[in-house]
Amino acid sequence: MALGTIGHMARCTAPVYGHRTASAEAACPACGGRYRDYGSYSYPSYSYPSYSPPQSSGGSPSSVGASRSSGRPRWSRTGSSVVYTPAEVRALTPVRESVEKRASLPDLRDVFLCHAWDDRRGAAKELHDLLESRGVSVWFSEKDVALGMPLLREIDKGLAKSRVGIVLVTPALLRRLQGEGIADKELSALLARDLLVPIVHDTTYEALREVSPLLGSRSGLSTAEAPMANVAAKLAELVAL
User: Fold this and answer.
1) What predicted TM-score, i.e. pTM, was given to this entire model?
2) For the chain, which has fewer Cβ within 10 Å, the N-terminal or C-terminal residue?
């Protein structure tokens, strides 16, 4: 046996303390130097499970407009049978936020109904009646502007005293917009705020964008996807406080 090995055995603490761990070997008078001289030993690497904070029940981006569990918008009441698409929830959420901000303002109508004159006894009257049957107060020129009253001034008052503006987009309205009539003035005021919901009826958003790109850029509801009664039900939930 070599002298160096004998000297190592005389000073090694393994017989007494053992070298079960790297730290014990490093502390040994004999083996510590050898441990330091050789860099081949590497501490084992341990992987720790990543920590994910618990998800809160509200406030996350996905829960701003819709409930995570039900897929309904947050303003839809429990037990409601009204079904929304994700696109509708995204489109209506800013409008709902504006409704809530204006909740404390007194004497507001729920809805201002913008429509073409030609639809006053057709689709516009149908939507008005469906909304009112659900308890929604509607500013409607056919009943709120008396004969002899200045129409534009009354429209301004109606816009100022309504929580939400809805625009019934029909072929008749598209013709009116091309002529820049009264409906165009109403839209200008509504487009300035997050208070506008287009309702496309018997036409398409593509046709609307050709006539009014700004209004066509707003998402809303369409009777091609759901009948007018369903549209009225969604609007009623939207403005309910």
Assistant:
1) 0.68
2) N
